[in-house]
Amino acid sequence: MQILFVCTGNTCRSPLAEAIARKIAIERGLPDVDTASAGTSAWEGASASDGALLVGLERGLDLNGHRARQLDRDVVARADLILAMGPHHLERIEALGGEGKAYLLTAYASHGQNTRPVNDPMGAELDVYRATAGELERLVRAAVERVVGERRVGGGEG
Q: What is the layout of strands, in order, in the sheet containing 102-104?
């Protein structure tokens, strides 16, 4: 199963979410859970932002090898579950054929109780990156728990 995280530039939120999900999948012994990320306006090949790199290191996440990629139909088609950082990302995902398997990360993690976007830390102080990473940690953990729970009872992702 591939979980795809989507933000704007694919240099802050989605790479952090991807790395967090990968770490959780390893901790939980979920070898069939693959994580990926993309951006709706990504500069293809860009590295993770300095803030994301630093906060990742603080949390034991290595983002050094991350390279941004543009969201397109092929990326959407390969994913089984797509988690977007904001409503405009969700609209783009759905326009590329992701309807029915794409959700706001906050909504998916909270079973629809929270529908606000994840704050974009781009260009902000390191404390803002830390706060975003903390929020992503909670949301991604809840999302992975939902995936595991729904697989256990034989349900889908939605």
A: 34-39, 2-7, 81-84, 102-104
Reported pTM:
0.95
DSSP assignment of 52-115? HHHHHHHTT---TT----B--HHHHHH-SEEEESSHHHHHHHIIIIITTSEEEHHHHHTTTS--
pLDDT in tens, 111-150: 999 999 999 999 999 999 999 999 999 999 999 999 999 8
Rounded to whole angstroms, the Cα distance separating 140 from 19 reads 10
**Catalytic residue numbers?**
7, 13, 120
Residue type for position 7: C
Look at phi and psi of residue 36 and say left if phi exceeds 0, alpha if psi is from -120 to 50, else beta.
beta
Listed by start position, the domains of the chain span: 2-152
CATH code of 2-152, in short, is 3.40.50.2300
